[in-house]
Description:
Elements: E1 3-9, H1 15-33, E2 41-47, E3 53-54, E4 57-58, H2 59-67, H3 77-83
Parallel strand pairs: 1-2
Antiparallel strand pairs: 3-4
Amino acid sequence: xxxxxxxxxxxxxxxxxxxxxxxxxxxxxxxxxxxxxxxxxxxxxxxxxxxxxxxxxxxxxxxxxxxxxxxxxxxxxxxxxxxxx
Length: 85
C-alpha cells in the first residue's frame, strides 16, 4: 500500500492541479513499482508560507524580500568570510 505525501505552499493550487498530481503520481507508482492503484494513497498538504521556511526565514519573508528587491539575509555572514580565505 504506497502512501505519498505531497507538500506545497498554500498559494492558489487549484482543484484541477491537485487532481492531476494525484492521478499522475498514482500512474507513476503503477508503472514503476507495479502497485495497485486502488491501494495507492496520495495526500496533498497545503502549508501556509508562514509555516514553511528555508535559509533561516519563512517563505513569506523570502518572497517579501524578493518583491522589494532586498538581498537575502545571511544568518552567519562570518562563514562567508571563512570560506573565502
